[in-house]
Amino acid sequence: MVNIGKINHLTIVKEVDFGMYLDGGEDFGEILLPLRYITPACIVGESVDVFIYLDSEDRIIATTDFPLAMVDDFALLEVVDTAPMGAFVDWGLAKDLLIPFAEQKADLRIGEKVIVKIYLDEMTERITGSTKVDRFLDQIPHEFETDQEVGLMVYSKTDLGYKVIINNEFWGLLYENEVFKPIQRGDFIKGYIKQVREDEKIDVYLQKAGYWNIDNVTKSVLDKLKSQAGYMEVTDKSSPDTIKHIFGISKKSFKKAIGSLYKEKIITIEDKGIRLL
User: Fold this and answer.
1) Which residues form the Conserved virulence factor B first S1 domain (predicted)?
2) Which domain holds residue 218?
């Protein structure tokens, strides 16, 4: 079955002057892979991974170029043009992605970067974008378990921390005081469920519960590391005076702290410094 807006593994059935045709099954018949997208791996009788979408004339077409995001994904994309029907964002393909005016949370401007939900319009089978994110997210949370691993996309900064999208399905909140590495809007990061509150809002964090049992000295090292953009040129081989000057603690306490953080896979210890993962 061919899925528009997704990567499909299709068989090449014939070659013509302007490209190759792929087997799209009963629903789509033969799908053109234009000449400019043909690679040395494209051989009649073999299968190839292609992205399927509609071209500017609404004809189904295949490409070996893959977009920055696909149908059902969220992505941070740049507005590159505006037109009477809406705004266009660059999503990595020759044909830019349309965000109709009706799907814009606010008027979009060229050069602006916005978080877009990519979806398939079932009526037209056109791949479309929307900045009205709320309508694509479930308001009743799944029955998550504490410390369950989830995928997060950073949506925006708030007074409390960061508003995130969980598994492309739910809103979540990541508290500022529980973030120990630089993150920004549009980042995709691994996280864990902290709790589903009584009001059905979801709190998440970036480390499992055991991480929060670290002592005050270890936390002070983490706080300092965070303030330095996640990297510092200091290790357990640094002099006691250097460690005392930077952290205000003994070398023995410092070694214990970074040892704990390394064991929890929160930092890496490099030749010349320590770095947040």
Assistant:
1) 4-64
2) 214-276
